[in-house]
Amino acid sequence: MSNRYITSHFPLISIMLFSLSFALYVQGFILEQLVDYGLYDGMREFFSENGIKLTLLFLLVLIFFMVFSALKLIADTVFQLSMLFFSKDEEGKELIKVRTGSWIFLLCGIISLFLAYSWLWLLILFILACFIYFTYFVYKVSDSISFIGMCGMVFFHVIFWTGFLLLILYAAIKLYNSFIASLP
């Protein structure tokens, strides 16, 4: 019995696992900062310790879930645009082949739970999962793309994601500089 929709829930579970992993790390960091600044004891007068931790974890998971969901939406759009521009496949059969690559993110999401103590390892694992998935994607669709098309598709992805990250970095630096300039 083979059903092509058997792995359709893997992206959602992967997003939830990565969101939980990043949220656990950030929760620990925020709690350390609250203790260092002396705010944690004041918060415990109004909420229980578990209540603070669970509320903070819920909000952080929600924020990371939104970020990873947006990144998945953007990545799917870029993948399909690259297939539109560079692939000979007009029926979408190549995209069906690629969907089995969701196992990559699922396995890395499970591993990320064990690496929730370090933001660097989490980030490395996430970038590694993206790179492995992209390699898998290129390998699976290589039958329907010429060598020039393959080079164009890889170049398209590299340019898009580099530009996207540089734009985010520029916006963050601009916001930081305006914040620093507004201080007395």
UniProtKB/TrEMBL annotation:
One Pfam family recorded for the sequence: DUF5366
Membrane-spanning ranges: 12-31, 51-75, 96-114, 151-173
UniProt-listed InterPro entries: DUF5366
Which N-terminal stretch is annotated as signal sequence?
none
Q: Which UniProt keywords apply?
A: Membrane, Transmembrane, Transmembrane helix
Q: Does the keyword Transmembrane apply?
A: yes
Question: Per its record, how is this protein called by name?
Answer: Membrane protein
Q: What is the organism field in this record?
A: Alkalihalobacillus alcalophilus ATCC 27647 = CGMCC 1.3604
